[in-house]
Amino acid sequence: MTAFLLFFGRSGLSELERQLDAVKIAIGAVVLGRAREAGFTPLFGVTTDGEAASSFRSRGAQILSPQTDPFHFGRELQATVREKRLDRVCTIGAGAGALLTVAELRAIREDLESTEMLVLSNNSYSADLVAFTPASALDAIELPATDNPLPRRLHQQAGLSSRQLEKSAATLLDVDTPTDAALLVRHPACPPELQRLDAWQAVLADRIEALMRLVTTPDKELLVAGRVGAPVWTFIESQTACRVRMLAEERGMQAAGRDVSGAARSALGFLYQLVGPRDFFAKMGELCDGMLFDMLVLFAHLGWRPGAPERFASYLFMADRIATKPLREFTEAARDASFPLLLGGHTLVSGAFWTMVEAAWHGHPDP
Predict the structure, then answer these.
(1) 62 - beta bridge partners?
(2) What is the mean pLDDT for each group of 10 consecutive residues in the chain (367 residues)?
(3) Over the Cα atoms of the chain, what is R_g?
(4) Domain covering 3-165 assigned CATH 3.90.550.10 in the classification
(5) Which helix (H) or strand (E) holds 237?
(6) Which residues touch 309 (CB under 8 Å, ≥6 apart)?
(7) Among 96, 203, 239, 293, which is most buried by a count of CB atoms within 10 Å?
């Protein structure tokens, strides 16, 4: 048997955070249902939230309440493994895996059940999905506070063989922002129950459609800026018709704590400081016909750490909801840019971008 654990915690109480949490809960329910079809058993939903618990329970999951405060992923996972006497485990955060099929989940389970020492992940450096055996390997590692470094520690400290899942929209997309959610529902493989969600289409649809037309049009140029990894670059090279200008900066920024320490530096950040928000986006317009901007690298360079309500409002170009003047001015300038632009975090230049390109070609007659 291989257990499946899905973790969900509330982002916050603002309207935008609660709306995104509703999307994550819906994704979690879909993933649990598909995991059950793929033969995972038992299923667990780890949450203190009543709405999430009800939704996850309806898909066959037992509900576990976290015991750590503040929440500590590694200790929670280890306690569950010991209490439930689990040997093979797959963990995922609510928000990830929305496009994973039953067949793909079954393949993960069968991989674990055919070996004795293995860790599988969607990204060995910053994981959202981690499957491993034996579960007792947790006793040999420094337990991580979040899931991101778990596969690397299981490999380096417990000696498990490590393998990454094939890169795709399904394995890379983790809905962390409203922009990610808006792109998910445009994908042809998005489950119908998720396509019906209110995922900010009224706000972002025109921008998304313009960018989808751009990536399938020769002689146009797309600018992708932020923590762009090598697999995305390879994908861009083979799957977009447009030219692509890439500015890859500060990969591993959060894992290394460079955003918190103030060590993060960005070429675009230096430019922003020199010219200000309006001229910054005017100059970006000289480089491209459209842009995907992982803006958290810029924010780390500038020393900005906005709370989720204002950060989400900025992703959605809702400058009137932002009280902090520098962030409001950034958002106004981004909103008024002369080219189609999407704002987000790391997922925007990873799984969400992959999702957008796949969706663009699905509606295009001549890929």
Answers:
(1) 44
(2) 97 94 98 98 98 98 96 98 98 97 98 96 92 98 95 97 95 96 96 92 96 96 94 88 95 86 97 98 98 98 97 98 98 98 96 95 64
(3) 20
(4) yes
(5) helix 230-239
(6) 12, 14, 16, 17, 321
(7) 96
Joined together, the tokens standing for residue 259 give: 């955003």
Residue 70, preceding peptide bond in cis (omega within 30° of 0): yes
d(CA 267, CA 284): 13
The vertex-151 CA angle with 148 and 157, nearest 5°, equals 120
Q: What pLDDT does residue 367 have? A: 40
pLDDT digits (tens, 9 = 90+) for 125-184: 889 999 999 999 999 999 999 999 999 999 999 999 999 999 999 999 999 999 999 999
Q: Is the pTM for the entire model greater than 0.90? A: yes
Please check whether residue 32 is in contact with residue 6, taking contact to mean a CB–CB distance below 8 angstroms. Answer: yes
Sign of CA dihedral 25, 27, 30, 31: negative
Domain boundaries, given as residue ranges, for the chain: 3-165, 178-362
Reduced to 3 states (helix: H, G, I; strand: E, B; else coil), residue 191 is: coil
> How far is it, in rounded angstroms, from Cα 367 to Cα 352?
19
Count, in order, helices (H) and strands (E) of the chain. 16, 11
Strand arrangement of the beta sheet that strand 62-64 belongs to: 62-64, 43-46, 3-7, 89-93, 129-133, 118-121, 161-164
